Amino acid sequence: MTGLSTHVLDAVSGAPAVGVAVSLQDASGTELAAGVTDGDGRIAQVNTDALIAGIHHLVFDTGSWFADQQLTGFYPEVDICFEVGDPQRHHHVPLLLSPYAYSTYRGS
Question: Which residue ranges does the record assign to the Transthyretin/hydroxyisourate hydrolase domain (predicted)?
């Protein structure tokens, strides 16, 4: 399986972050695809076209999500910059989110 998926978890409650808008962008900032996390906090297939090798950005609209949750957050947007080396490989980019911190890792 090729492509890109993501999962956003509310690290404070341990629950999925439902309704987070996500944008996939190339290195120049051009939007390639967009979506919103589902009831499990996931977007199973962010893009329909295969990723090309190079730098990409996965941008999460955390400010709107915090506002919807009636929370004050420090990060209005999280931009995860990552590099695709093998376009034939599936890439999974999770985000663990809280109002004053976030973390990510290369998932499988």
Answer: 1-107
